[in-house]
UniProtKB/TrEMBL annotation:
UniProt xrefs under Gene3D superfamilies: Luciferase-like domain
A Pfam family hit: Bac_luciferase
Protein name according to UniProt: LLM class flavin-dependent oxidoreductase
InterPro entries attached to this UniProt entry: Diverse_substr_monoxygenases, Luciferase-like_dom, Luciferase-like_sf, NTA_MOA
Domain Luciferase-like: 37-292
């Protein structure tokens, strides 16, 4: 598929700072799942490619005075609930390769893929924080974490294929459930000595799409080898162009197409009916709002301002799409769905309806 790739972060950034205090914020449903179900349903209404749940494995207490901070549900549990309340949108939970086991992640993600009927992906991250919450984890450098991450991803992929979808027969007449000869252990040389096979058969014969978040040199090499998209922190078009060029070169070295890895910067959207209202919302939501100091790409203004910024960056080659980070209030998400994305569709840069019901299909990777 051509055009933009658009995801929605379920962080939830629209509650940041004092925004949760608004009577319509939905803060009461933060831990019931209802808030995120509604957000995912809105994203599906706009035919977005996926919803994405970042994760943190440690809790910083200080921010809790004024906003939820890292308070939140387990990503795969949340996505499993959302799967039952949506029909087409992709579901991308985050798992850290630093503090989880490949077998566990392979089983969880493939289970989600079945529950959602092919809509699951995996956001692969390494984690420097959170070590004290896990038993038997040694302190490692960022370089070591990314070296291990490559073995980790390869092991998960082999586990996904260890119990192929084609092994399931379901022949009631002959009483044959599956072909055991097709279910095989994996060869897992390297850091992770895992035997397999997985207890969950593959949903289909394709690996799940991989998202990767990170900006270091090691992260880029890992993304070039395995990722289908990167969640990037590019505040400027120039930095986005540079990242796309670098990833294209690295992907070619790995024997992949130069366009194999999509660059999806986080896009902070603080939207209102006019710019003055948007500026006021931003000032109330962030302790020290200043456009020049925002790490993510940021638009504070009207839906038209957002459309212009997105089109400008896309046409300049600074992004293949974006992951929306609605800010200021729930209304920013509503305006994204009601006005920004429909306008992008009118311009021919995004779909006006789903043509697939799997994440691979949305991303043009085949069914």
């Amino acid at each position: 598929m051509t055009g933009l790739t658009i995801g929605l972060s379920l962080s939830p950034t629209w509650l940041r700072g004092g925004a949760w205090r608004d009577p319509s914020s939905g803060i009461e449903d933060l831990l019931s799942g209802e808030l995120f179900i509604r957000a995912a349903q809105l994203a599906e209404q706009a035919h977005m490619d996926f919803v994405f749940k970042p994760d943190a494995l440690l809790l910083k207490k200080e921010p809790l005075v004024t906003w939820p901070g890292f308070t939140g549900l387990d990503p795969v549990v949340m996505m499993s609930v959302i799967a039952r309340e949506t029909h087409s949108i992709g579901l991308v939970p985050t798992f850290s390769s630093s503090f989880t086991q490949p077998y566990f992640v392979a089983r969880e993600t493939q289970s989600l893929n079945h529950i959602s009927r092919g809509r699951a992906g995996w956001n692969v991250v390494t984690s420097l924080g959170g070590k004290d919450n896990f038993v038997g984890v040694e302190q490692r450098t960022s370089v070591e974490l990314y070296q291990d991450a490559q073995d980790y991803v390869e092991t998960v992929r082999r586990l996904w294929g260890s119990y192929p979808a084609s092994a399931i027969v379901l022949d009631r007449h002959q009483g044959i459930f599956a072909k055991p000869e097709l279910v095989r252990p994996i060869s897992s040389p390297g850091v992770f000595d895992v035997a397999g096979p997985l207890t969950v058969p593959a949903y289909d014969d394709h690996p799940l799409p991989l998202l990767h978040a990170g900006g270091s040199a090691q992260s880029k090499h890992c993304a070039a080898r395995y990722a289908d998209a990167v969640f990037a922190m590019n505040a400027t078009t120039e930095s986005g162009v540079a990242l796309k060029e670098e990833l294209a070169e690295l992907a070619e070295r790995e024997g992949r197409e130069p366009t194999a890895v999509r660059v999806l910067p986080g896009l902070s959207l603080c939207l209102a009916s006019n710019r003055e209202k948007a500026e006021d919302l931003a000032a109330q939501s962030f302790d020290s709002y200043a456009p020049g100091h925002v790490k993510h790409w940021s638009v504070v203004g009207t839906p038209s301002d957002a459309v212009e910024a997105i089109v400008r960056r896309y046409e300049a080659g600074g992004a293949d799409g974006f992951i929306a980070l609605p800010a200021g209030s729930w209304n920013s998400l509503q305006l994204l769905v009601d006005e920004v994305i429909p306008r992008l569709a009118e311009l021919g840069l995004f779909r006006s309806e789903y043509h697939s019901h799997t994440l691979r299909g949305h991303l043009g990777m085949g069914e």
